[in-house]
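step 4 of 6: structure.
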Amino acid sequence: MSRSGEKSFIEWICHSLPPQPHSIDHGPGDDTAIFHSNAELPSLITTDLLMDGVHFHLDQTHARRVGYKAMAVNLSDIAAMGGTPSLCVVSIALPCTNGRALGEELMGGLMDLAREFEVGIAGGDTNSWNGPLVVNITLLGQASRKGPLLRSTAKPGDLLLVTGKLGGSLGGRHLDFKPRVRESRLLHDHYNLHAMIDVSDGLSTDLWHLLNASSCGACLKQDCIPIHDSVYEIQDARTPLEHALYDGEDFELLFTADPAEADRILQDQPLDIPITLIGQMTSEKEAQLMAPDGQTHSLKPQGWEHRLQ
Amino acid sequence: MSRSGEKSFIEWICHSLPPQPHSIDHGPGDDTAIFHSNAELPSLITTDLLMDGVHFHLDQTHARRVGYKAMAVNLSDIAAMGGTPSLCVVSIALPCTNGRALGEELMGGLMDLAREFEVGIAGGDTNSWNGPLVVNITLLGQASRKGPLLRSTAKPGDLLLVTGKLGGSLGGRHLDFKPRVRESRLLHDHYNLHAMIDVSDGLSTDLWHLLNASSCGACLKQDCIPIHDSVYEIQDARTPLEHALYDGEDFELLFTADPAEADRILQDQPLDIPITLIGQMTSEKEAQLMAPDGQTHSLKPQGWEHRLQ
């Protein structure tokens, strides 16, 4: 893409933007964007860089799904704090060959989700190069009036709950998943949750993130882990349980509440997706997996090995 | 870099961070960072993606200078709005070979500037891959009480001023330049400026950005353009004036004020660097360059050709 091509692409983006939220006073077109925040609520910021060959494979994936995923992973981070997304900036490095078409597809997928979750696209940076497609989104959001839901505030005795089903996401769901923004807000608004994280690196790894942050341990019940249907179609050396524990990119919510509150949530089942009790927090800093026969095994963080270089 | 290598690198970053500003309530370590804004002042947001082979050449440049530049170009954008930088998030894609060492150097250069300008590093995303070094910074800031300085508010009759000297930056200065954050704040605080932009794409191109945004024209005086000493060392087909007009990556401030105010600024010379009168805004939407003999030529936006793919 030539310099004039970049300019014309930016003009295309500006004409294609979804309706901008009122918080954006001045979108793309100056040295920075200008916005205003609700100072009564804490602000949230997260950023994710996705690269061709690592987080997606452009030879197997439509760029629209890449754009969708780039926005979705950031939305999932805001969801994991019980927050509401507000606006983002988008940086793209487009390959020289077919860059404009790829760019439009990528932005299309990204804008689909921006529209759905009322996220403003305040600005960005577009480039082209003799390299693979790279996209970075930085997303801002606001915590709820109850404050952000941290990883570090789980307590021993809390029950561990998870939304949806786990495993097999890399078969394709990781490019299409629906970030749990509304689900998280509903749970946070109506119940007293103690801690939350999104399952991006795999249940075992993200559980360990929670345990390390909260200085707790946990015991998971092996036969309670909700396994996604897609896992049973995978033909490899891993068991379905191992896929659910280690695959990652599920982007479901893992959260804790005290037993009475967790029971209320499980009874209510307030979401369109199942909420499952998978275990309990303990005071000793270790993670155990209990088999149906009562035997326990140590659970190591093993998610996301596909990201290893 | 392995997954455990990435984890250890993130731990290194967290231990090496400069003092965080009070606006950051919760830095790296959760799904998002948490901060609070001064709601009385408009917030600013900018993002820049730098790629090896396009914005720098790692085979000729120490990664520390790349990190410095990645932060400096964002700081320059905040400066161009007359704002104060506050916090950033940093995304990095490190090449597999020597990734950890490159990452530490990059972060070192970036943190030097963060420390100097009291910018918090609220979070980020680190990755490694079989690709070139890529770094993206998203920087937040706040406008001054006088509001942000836009590109779109120059008026016909305004005088056009520029800080410092132009041209020859690609010989090395583009990796070491000092972003004009303090200079911009001082000018904005003490004088009534109409419009401002930073000279990143080259004087001719950034002048056109200003003209298009403000629906004005301009006439530059050829013999008033301040030419950087380094230009005279360049042996190529371009004249020194052409280097000053078209090279780009100067990261100086181009701004306008009404004639009386501009005269006051020129008289005061309130900065450690020179402020030079280079021309005047006109009502007809064209840019002209006036030679010493009074002849005028049309000035086209030709900066940044080195970015062309």
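step 5 of 6: annotate
 - Residues 63-80 of chain B form the longest helix (18 residues).
 - Chain B has seven helices and 13 strands.
step 6 of 6: archive
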